[in-house]
Specification:
four-stranded antiparallel β-sheet; 6 helices; 9 strands
């Protein structure tokens, strides 16, 4: 997949509102593979909705979203499953980790399906992000910042053309932000992929090609 295009897209909940200052809603916008985007806006303006629309989790929008020119409204459930395994990676704001499972088990739930990286690589990423002593620790007993780092690693344990990350460093300090950004960028560059990151203020420290405002 090389392009994600939004044509006159608007969350239905915003129908009738004045969004003339938005560079995303009610516009023609294309995200291109190999480029990094940051979508910045206050809370409640649709950042999470944007990610959920693109990932196919929600359809409560007006307008058209297409992948390489094909309207996603026509994608079958089986095709969505394949896209999410091979083309679209997603880190939701809610993280969606299993609290009773360890950090390694949470990551391996995805990686064992994709076979994308070795367990040694996963452990190396966790060590780099200061989680060496939490690898076999239940995530439900971790801090939110630690959980966020686990979820970041899980998100990149698959092939992808586009990586959607919704406020990925909201609970990370400057040092861990930089470390996480380096890991994400290295993996995205290795795959020739695009990063679409949302931010409400604490922006991930990736090299940004395009900045957008909702």
């Amino acid at each position: 997949m090389d392009r994600i295009t939004l044509d006159n897209v608007l969350p239905r909940v915003f129908e009738g509102e004045d969004l003339s200052g938005s560079q995303v809603w009610r516009s023609s916008l294309t995200f291109e593979r190999g480029r990094n985007y940051v979508v910045e806006a206050p809370s409640g303006t649709g950042k999470s909705s944007l990610c959920a629309f693109i990932y196919g989790n929600r359809r409560d929008y007006q307008g058209r979203i297409s992948f390489d020119g094909s309207d996603i409204a026509s994608i079958s459930p089986d095709a969505w499953q394949n896209l999410r395994r091979t083309q679209l990676a997603y880190l939701p704001q809610e993280l969606d980790l299993f609290p009773e499972l360890t950090a390694m088990q949470n990551v391996c739930l995805k990686n064992d399906l994709t076979g994308h990286v070795s367990h040694e690589q996963i452990r190396a990423w966790m060590t780099s992000l200061g989680l060496a002593d939490r690898i076999d620790f239940p995530v439900g007993k971790m801090s939110i910042g630690q959980q966020q780092r686990v979820a970041i690693i899980r998100a990149i344990c698959q092939p992808f053309s586009f990586l959607l990350i919704d406020e990925p460093v909201s609970h990370l300090d400057e040092r861990n932000n930089a470390l996480a950004a380096r890991i994400i960028m290295t993996e995205a560059e290795r795959q020739g992929a695009a990063i679409i990151a949302t931010s409400v203020g604490n922006r991930i420290g990736i090299t940004t090609h395009v900045e957008l405002h909702l």
